[in-house]
Amino acid sequence: TGPDQAAMYAGLQELGVANGEDLKETLTNCTEPLKAIEQFQTENGVLLPSLQSALPFLDLHGTPRLEFHQSVFDELREKLLERVSAIALEGKVEERYKKLEDLLEKSFSLVKMPSIQPVVMCVMKHLPKVPEKKLKLVMADKDLYKACAVEVKRQIWQDNQALFGDEVSPLLKQYILEKENILFSNDISVLHNFFSPSPKTRRQGEVVQKLTQMIGKNVKLYDMVLQFLRTLFLRTRNVHYCTLRAELLMSLHDLEISEICTVDPCHKFTWCLDACIREKFVDNKRARELQGFLDGVKKGQEQVLGDLSMILCDPFAINTLALSTIRHLQDLVGQDTLPRESPDLLLLLRMLSLGQGAWDMIDSQVFKEPKMEAELITKFLPMLMSFVVDDHTFNVDQKLPSEEKGPIPYPSTIPEAFTKFLLENRIACEIGLYYILHITKQRNKNAFLRLLPALVETFSDLAFSDIFLHLLTGNLTLLGDEFALEEFCTSLFDGFFLTACSRKENVHRHVLRLLLHLHHKVAPAKLESLQKALEPTKQSGEAVKELYNQLTEKLELRKPSPAEVTETPSMELPLPTVPTPASR
């Protein structure tokens, strides 16, 4: 036996059980080896008198003793494992744990023996508090640490934040990567987008499930994960960490883990908001409930606002609040009511403001609700409502019998104040972008082209953020036929996308995604110039190059072969050129 084997069986000697080393020693120092082997077998075999006469019977059947002993051993181990699990559930708490602790004390020295290890691990798994000394030995040995149950690991992690961090970190990276893969997916659709899966479906994701299992009912570990998420959100400003914060709490809620849910002050708020996200709308009843939570933050407990703001900063929450805001504005137009007269609308703005202010609040550690700018309510929102009215007016005009003066053109200018709001006010920008998504989804080309120039410069470049571009590209598929028109393509590509492509790799990727999906709709001359403009540079990342190659391949397949081109008979007479629809 090598040194590793020796170490593995060393524990047997401590228990007074002979091992391979003892047999070796016996055989080295004896005169009659066969007799010595027989004696060793008798002393260390299964000590059952009735068995002695049965063993030769097995020999006659050619069954090796090893096979027999192995099957007895496996059977006994199974019985022991069942018994350990039963002890963990029977009798008084102190007594059952005393039995398990005694068993652990006796068996721990054999923890490295592969055949006995499952029993030792099972005993530890059922002990709510494994002795510190044993935990340290497990932690120090990579293989033992790997082999022990998550119940034991939790006891190790709760006093070793760095080790727990090492376990959690790859999961958090995986989570962010999964989110980004959805945003950059080549499947562009208005029906299935980033926000399509229900909260319950999202919580079934691998990362959320693994983290939920790692935490169990351990409040200390839950707090550690929240601390990791806060720190990473601060470091990266990546809002997907806010989504994970909410998903994790709701995953524990689904499992009814009251030990954690009752101590997280955001639980009921998150639960109520989760129902709104499921419906993609904040109804009046839930709005009152959410307002109750916000108004109920007591003096001295303002720190909870930091957590609530992170829950509201989750893109799924922002999406729900923004969609509800647009719906409210449309209703107000029909009711002839101003935004400042609608308490429901003001509450939505309050929550949007709290969510959008999450990073600043956690960074500054100043826990108070951000002040709402009056002009947002008195000027910006009425301006959006006037756009809705413009559309109604234009649509009615189109239906009226036209007189000599001819049809009234669609308003093409945008108020300077609108562009200024989108650049300087975060909440206005968010709502403005959602309004543009809304008109695109309605296939309202006129309104889209009118407001598009305002997107070139927005607050913190929000119009070039992945979530907005993911939704916009999806909605643009509804305007597919417009891509044949020069004017539309020039406004969309030259006037918007290409202004940021060279400085923002993500925009480059989104444009390529869109063209991969709609290239067959784009006028050939425009497509050619776009292909040139979108060619990757040396600095471009792999993703851009890959998408560009895919697009090039698709376009190659569409080109007619040179043979086809030359075969067209030449006309004798020069024909007058007929303008194509695209060049009008």
UniProtKB/TrEMBL annotation:
InterPro entries: COBRA1. It comes from the Eukaryota. Residues 558-584 are annotated as: Disordered. It comes from Chunga burmeisteri. This is NELFB factor. One of its GO terms (biological process) is negative regulation of transcription elongation by RNA polymerase II. Pfam families: COBRA1. GO terms for cellular component: NELF complex.
